[in-house]
Design brief:
single chain, alpha/beta, 60s Ribosomal Protein L30, Chain: A, Alpha/beta knot, 2 domains, six-stranded parallel sheet, four-stranded mixed sheet, 9 helices, 30% helix, elongated
């Protein structure tokens, strides 16, 4: 958003020439951009949307076709408007985004590629960008609470994942495996930035998130709530495949990309296991390791449920 004009000090000089009638802080006037298809919503205009204050989790700017489609389809949070690059080749996915936006009465604005790329915070926004209400975190106790119907809580605790692409890949795999909630550290950890939301490809719209001040304390709370916590560490003597996971609540705990699980986090886990490897490299990327572990836990839970 264009910043307001700076205040001028009073001087003895004559008053400056009369300015235009544009409001201070408003972007310069420009011809209305052409729109792709019929405009949706009366609010569509050439003005840049006002930004809300940053939230604890983020998720207010969503980029990429799949991520924007899931944002609109899920309908879990308000979407203020969608930007599309004008003159894009026809695409069923773009048509679906327009249809979903029309159904939810979300304004669609056709803008130049330069304007969208200038606002985007990912390398390849795919010609689509949405402005939405940030994702609201929930209390940790809510994540751990067994539902009235359906499977018991299946959580992932990200204990210090800092790379946005790793977190995005982790969330996409977790949602695909049936994870119900994700715990993120408040400090020194990636949150739901545009890169995370794009790599996650819409997974954030189907997960609940809790933000905690300290992961060790959160693990103690989960234990008191009856959640079995299982940490992943490559040097553990016990294999993930030796676990006997039933239908009770469970949380997978994954550590930082470079250091893995911190010593105190490891001690607070009920179990610490490794993913057996048969190649030369010493470890898996945290996103890949989480995917393997999540789907193994999901397999065992399904088998136990009959």
């Amino acid at each position: 958003m264009t910043a307001g004009a700076p205040r001028r000090r009073k001087t003895g000089r004559a008053a400056p020439a009369k300015r235009t009638t544009a409001r201070r802080g408003a972007p310069p006037r420009s011809p209305a951009p052409a729109r792709r298809g019929r405009p949706v919503g009366a609010e569509a205009s050439g003005d840049r949307p006002r930004r809300r204050p940053p939230s604890e989790l983020g998720g207010d700017q969503v980029e990429g076709r799949q991520a924007v489609r899931e944002l609109l389809a899920a309908g879990r949070r308000p979407v203020r408007r969608v930007w599309m690059v004008e003159g894009q080749d026809p695409s069923p996915q773009l048509d679906e985004i327009e249809a979903l936006a029309a159904r939810r009465r979300v304004p669609i604005e056709s803008v130049s590629r330069g304007r969208l790329d200038g606002e985007a915070r990912t390398d390849a926004p795919q010609g689509v960008l949405a402005f939405a209400r940030p994702v609201d975190p929930v209390a940790l106790e809510d994540l751990a609470r067994p539902p009235r119907s359906g499977p018991a809580p299946f959580l992932v605790v990200a204990a210090g994942v800092t790379d946005p692409r790793n977190l995005g890949a982790l969330l996409r795999a977790a949602e695909g495996a049936g994870v119900t909630g994700v715990v993120l550290a408040r400090h020194r950890a990636a949150h739901l930035s545009p890169t995370v939301t794009k790599v996650a490809a819409g997974a954030i719209e189907h997960l609940e998130f809790a933000v905690v001040g300290g992961v060790p304390t959160a693990l103690e709370e989960l234990r008191r709530a009856g959640v079995w916590t299982v940490g992943l560490a490559g040097e553990s003597p016990r294999s993930l495949y030796d676990l006997s996971i039933g239908t009770e609540p469970v949380a997978l705990v994954v550590g930082a990309e470079d250091k893995g699980l911190a010593p105190l986090v490891r001690r607070r886990c009920d179990e610490v296991v490794r993913i057996p490897q048969h190649g030369t490299l010493p470890s898996l990327n945290v996103g890949a390791a989480t995917a393997v572990a999540c789907f193994e836990v999901a397999r065992q839970r399904m088998a136990a449920a009959g």
